[in-house]
Design brief:
Length: 76
């Protein structure tokens, strides 16, 4: 993991098209501004994990459904 130190108003560049700026520091919280192309997915980690869990659950629940549909179509 790369660890960088930035002050208020300073930024970090990632590739040519992503920029992260320290917008505010308040106590133990840091507010970041992120400039990135619209098609770049950006999530807080807890939201990203929830999305992954939801996708995994949906994929697992659809497998039995697909098997049931296959059996039903063969029986017809």
């Amino acid at each position: 993991m790369l660890v960088l130190t930035r002050k208020l108003g300073e930024s970090i560049a990632i590739d040519d098209d992503i920029k992260i700026v320290v917008v505010q520091i308040k106590g133990k919280q840091v507010r970041l501004g992120i400039e990135a192309p619209r098609d770049t997915k950006i999530h807080r980690e807890e939201v990203y994990i929830a999305i992954q869990d939801s996708n995994k659950a949906a994929a697992e629940s659809s497998i039995p459904t697909l098997k049931t549909l296959a059996k039903t179509s063969r029986a017809s």
